[in-house]
Design goal:
The protein is 23% helix and 34% strand. By secondary structure, it is of the alpha+beta class. The protein is elongated, with a radius of gyration of 16 Å. The two termini are 20 Å apart.
Length: 141
C-alpha cells in the first residue's frame, strides 16, 4: 500500500482546554487538520496550491477515539498517515501522544473526497497522484 507519513509536535494552548483543565474534545479534529496540512506541505502540495490547480479535499467522514488526557502546555506528538481510500478519496489516519510522560491521547481518521471547486467529485488529478506516489516511495539507502 502506498502511503505517506508525517510527524509534528503541538503544544496544548490555554484556549484549547475546558473547565476540567484538559483539552476540549473538538480540538482533536483541529489537530488532525494541522497534521494533514503539514503532511501535504511536506510533500510539496500545500492546500493553496491544490486549490489553485482545481482540486479540493472536503471532509466526508471523521472518527475519533479519546484515549487519555492532555492539559495546558503539554507537548503532543501527532503522526498522520495518508493513503488513497478508493478511486476518489484520501484517508488520513492520525495518532496523538502526549510527550513527557508519554501517553496516548487520541487516534482516529478523516476521509476526504477529491472535488472541484463546485463540489463535483473527481478522481485525483494525475499531478496529485504523481507527487503523492513519489513521496510514498521508500528512500533507497
Amino acid at each position: 500500500m502506498n502511503d505517506i507519513r508525517s510527524t509534528i509536535q503541538l503544544r496544548v494552548r490555554y484556549s484549547e482546554t475546558d473547565q476540567m483543565g484538559t483539552f476540549y474534545n473538538s480540538r482533536v479534529l483541529e489537530w488532525f487538520e494541522c497534521g494533514r496540512t503539514e503532511l501535504m506541505r511536506q510533500i510539496g502540495l500545500p492546500y493553496s496550491e491544490m486549490e489553485s490547480r482545481g482540486a479540493w479535499l472536503p471532509l466526508v467522514e471523521a472518527h475519533v477515539e479519546y484515549l487519555g488526557r492532555a492539559r495546558y502546555d503539554d507537548l503532543l506528538e501527532l503522526t498522520t498517515i495518508a493513503s488513497f481510500a478508493g478511486p476518489a478519496r484520501l484517508r488520513c489516519d492520525a495518532r496523538i501522544i502526549r510527550l513527557n510522560p508519554e501517553a496516548p491521547v487520541a487516534r482516529g481518521y478523516t476521509v476526504h473526497a477529491f472535488t472541484r471547486h463546485d463540489g463535483r467529485v473527481i478522481r485525483p488529478p494525475a499531478w496529485f497522484r504523481e507527487i503523492f506516489d513519489r513521496a510514498a516511495r521508500p528512500n533507497p539507502g
